[in-house]
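Researcher: For the record, we're logging two predictions in this thread. I'll number them. Prediction 1 follows.
Model: Prediction 1, sequence and structure:
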Amino acid sequence: MSAILGNPMFTTTTLPLLLGIVLALLARFALPPSSPALTVFWAVLLLFFYWDTLGPPVVPPVAASQKLIYLAFAGIVISLLPERVLGGRMGSLGAIVFAAAFLWLGWRRIAAGTLDLQMIAALAVGLLTLVGAPILTARQASQSPSMEEPFLTPAAVLALSLSGAIVSVLGASIVTGQLLGSVAALIGGWCLVHYVAVLRGGVAASWSKGLEFLLLYAAATVLIQVALLAPKANPAALILSSLPPIAAVLVRGPLQNQLPGARPLRPLVAGILIAVPAMLAIVTAIVWAPHGAALGFS
C-alpha cells in the first residue's frame, strides 16, 4: 500500500481524480455549489498538491517554484472574499493579480532586458492569461443558464492544465508538469460526475466566482512559471496552452450558435471547442520536443 501511495503517478493522476469526484458529490448532495466551505475544501486540496509536489513554503522564497505556493495562498485569500465584494471588481482585480504574479515570477528576466524567443513566449502567455481569465471570471451569470455554462470555466482550467502539464514535461520541467497534471485530474473528476448527472437528466453545479478565480489563477501562474523558466518548453505550445480561457469566452458568446441543440451534447461539444488550442499545444510540443526532453532527462 505504501508503494502505491508513494508512486508519483498515483499522487499526480489517480488520487486527484478520486478527490475531484468526492468534491463533485459533496456539491451535489451535501453543500451548495456557492458555499464558502466548498471553496475551502478545494483550497485545502490545492495546497496539498502544491506541498506534495513543490515541498513546504520556503522563507523567504527565492526560486520561482518556491513562489508558486505563496501565489496559491494569495489566490485562496481572494477566492474567499464575499461575492458582494468580488462582484463587479473581479475583472480589474483579476488583471491586477495576474500582472503582479507575472512580475514577481519573472522580475529577474525582465530586469535582464533580454528579449529572446522564450521571453516573447512568456510575455504572450502572461498577456493572454491576464486577458482571458479575468474576462471569463467577470462574466455575469445568465438569468436562465444554458446546459453547458457550468462546464465552461472547469473545461478551460482542465484544458489549460492538461496541455500545460504535457508541454512542461516535454520541456524537461517535470515538477511543474506533475502539479498541473494534478490540477487537471482534480477538475476532471468534478466534470465527470456532473456530466453523468446531465446525462441522467440533472443539472451541473456551477462554481462560485471565487472558486473560478482560484483555479484559473493557480493553473495560469504555474503555466507562466514554465514559460518564463523552462527553456526547453516549446514557445508555440506554451502560447496555445494559455488560450482555453479565451476559447471559453468565445463559446459563451460568438461560438454558442455552433453548439448542438441536443441537451447532453452541448457540454461535450463546448468542452471540445475549448480544448482545441490545448490539443494543438500538445501536438506541437510532441512534434517539436527537444531530443530527450520527452522523458525530462535532458
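Researcher: Logged. Prediction 2.
Model: Prediction 2, sequence and structure:
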Amino acid sequence: MPAGVTLERIDTTESLQLGVQTIAAGMPWPDAGRDYILDMVLKHGFVAHPSVRYYLARLNGQPVATSILYLASGVAGLYCVATVPSARGRGIGRAISHLPLLDARDMGYRVAILQATEKGERVYRRLGFEEVCRIHFWQR
C-alpha cells in the first residue's frame, strides 16, 4: 500500500458523492454527466445492492481514486477505476483495483473482467488480466 493511502468501501450518501466527484476528476466525464449522477445520489441517497460495491481511495485523507465492482452470473466486473491526475503513478490505481478483486474472490468469484484504457493496461496486466478483445467507441 502506498504511504498515506487508505481504502474504503463506500456505504453512505456522503462517501458516494465523493466517489462520483473523484470519478469525474479522474476520467474525461462531461460536467453534465457528473451533475446528473450527483443529483441522482442526492435524490435517492446511497442504496445498497448485493450485486454492486463501491470503493474509494484517499491519500492523506483526500479522495483520489475510485472503483466499482459488479457481480453477476458468476463474473466479477471491475469498472469506473479512476485516479485523479495529481495522484497517478503511485500505485493507488492498482490498490483500488486490487481490493474489489480480493472481495470478489472471498465471495467465491473466480472470473473477473474489465475494460481498460491504454493508461490502465499496464496496471491490469500486473494484476493478472489478459487482453481478449478490443472495443472501439464511435461518436458523432
